[in-house]
Amino acid sequence: MKMTGYRLHLWGGELQWESFELPDPQPDEALIRVEACGIGLTVLNCIRGDLANDAARLPRVPGHEIVGRVERVGAGAQALTVGQRVMAYFYLVCGHCPACRSGNDSLCENLAGWVGVHRDGGYAPFAVLPARNLVPLPDSIPAAQATAIPDAIATPLHVCKTRARVQAGDRVAVIGAGGGVGIHMVEMARLFGAQVAGLEASGSKFQAITVMGGTPVLSRSFDEIDLRKVWDAPTATVVIDLLGTRESATWGLKSLALGGRFVALTTFRDVDVPMSPRDLVLRELTMLGSRYASKAELVESADLVAAGKIHPIVSQVVPPEKIGEVHDALRNGTLLGRGALDWNL
Length: 345
Ligand SMILES: [Zn+2]
Hints:
The chain is α/β, with parallel strands linked by helices. 25% of the residues lie in helices and 26% in strands.
């Protein structure tokens, strides 16, 4: 049987809309009928070859934020049932190392890569994935909205709950607050009890930041930011940097209160930030990296959405032939929150 979807034949090249063979699920795998696949900057990074660019991995179907139903189950994948609603876990983890067995999945010691980079993803109507990469998802959440859960919402949950431990009384500054992870970070930090400043270079995203419970702050120039306009202090107790430039990180460290925590989430190469041990000690700062989320955090994220506590912002939902429009909006910085490819449109 054949299917038609998007494949990449060259890292950094153009996606090709083409017909190709639908694979059979092998032992411990399952075939998923994709309902929708999220479109965010990480997908563009994957397509560019930023995560891996081995030509032996081509052709490749990109897209990791997959929501769908189990269509067929391979031998040994008994934990899954045909027709079950699932979302994909981004990292191809081993399932048996100490990190995997202790629930710290994203720190897997035998990481085999990423969905959409080392395995075919959701830019095609079907995908075969390891059963351990499929996480249950409630039926009640519409597909396009649900694509925000496995990365754009689970990542903020990991930051707020596990890494920065945001709590009432915190003053959280989110740099890049209008993007897919950023906009949900604003609402998540509010849910954890913090006041939130949403730094964003595009004024068109201010209204959404406000709706999510944050105070928008224009961040075209970091020198001009005055946090006293947001709360009764010139500093933040937590800075979450989704922009990942030397300027953003430098501003973030400078703007921390005594005892503050800085959280890095970007993986751009060749970005270095001066850091003084004396400064770390005298201000008792904490510098944190945050790496994706655990499978348990994906489940908890879906529960938060189902309960109406976190609201997915998926502002552009398109049929397959229009994904280029969403890619353009992402590149131009005009996409609010996430986009999604909906296979039922
Ligand atoms: Zn592992």
